[in-house]
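Students often ask why we bother encoding 3D structure as a string. The short answer is that it lets us treat folding as translation between two languages. Here is a chain of 112 residues written in the first language.
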Amino acid sequence: MHLRPRLAGELSRDGSLRAQGQTITREEILQKLISIRYERNDIAFERGRFRVRGDVVEIFPAGYNNRGVRIEMFGDEVERIIEFDVTTGEVYGERLHPWCSRRPTTSQTMRI
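And here it is in the second language, the structure alphabet:
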């Protein structure tokens, strides 16, 4: 099952991270998250924050309740983007695009 966002947020809108298979460094992803006001915190994983573990970047989008986005890298290639429950770790499915916004909004929805 692929989850497709109706609105692809700032990470994909400007072309910084469009989809799986794209070549981009982990540092470029982190810089983009910081530039749209996401805060790195490897301990307290809350809305509007992200954490990094090796080649995996986990993002807790500001507009989500308990769902996060995990970007798995293989070198400088985006290998997989998945959506998961931040409390249990349960994987909901793969995504075609990451999706994060500068501020919470209820208009950001997904089609399953």
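Translate back mentally: The radius of gyration is 12 Å. Keep this in mind for the problem set.
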